[in-house]
Amino acid sequence: MGENWKRNPGPRHFPKVSCIQVPPSAQDTYLLKDLKRGQKCYLYSIMRVYDSKPLREMLSHQYMLNLQRQNLLGHITEHEVQFYTSFLDQAEEREPRKVSARNRASLKSSVGRTQP
């Protein structure tokens, strides 16, 4: 009688285990050479926590969904959606840049300013 749910349980979504790509230059350093396998796994798990790539991908996906929603509501045109989508695709291909100390100071000073 109550066996129907067992036959068709529906799609199951399992959490994806993220893997961090450790460059060969980092794997071959003299500091990591003497580490045991468990110690390397622990170090890589710490690197995975501080990896910003999954967060950037999630944010980009949210932007894409927001663009589609804005288009469905009629707030932006299909041409604008394509333009912004191409901009997001280009941003994903680029590596994030570090802000130099000089640029960081100019960014902080421009935060308080208002545009006329």
- Indicate the radius of gyration in whole angstroms: 23 Å
What is the arithmetic mean of pLDDT?
74
Number of helices: 7
The succession of helices and strands, N to C, reads: HHHHHHH
- Share of residues in helices: 55-70%
General shape: elongated
Distance between the termini: 72 Å
Class from helix and strand fractions: mainly alpha
Organism: Mauremys mutica
Biased composition (Polar residues): 106-116
Region (Disordered): 93-116
Protein name: Protein FAM216B
Write up what this structure looks like.
This protein has 116 residues and is an all-alpha fold. Among the domains are: 18-51; 53-94. The protein is built from seven helices and no strands. Helix 5 (53-73) runs antiparallel to helix 6 (78-93). The longest helix is centred in the middle third of the chain and has 21 residues, at 53-73. The protein is elongated and about 60 Å long. The termini are far apart. 0% of the residues are buried. Residues 93-116 are annotated as: Disordered. This is Protein FAM216B. InterPro entries: FAM216.
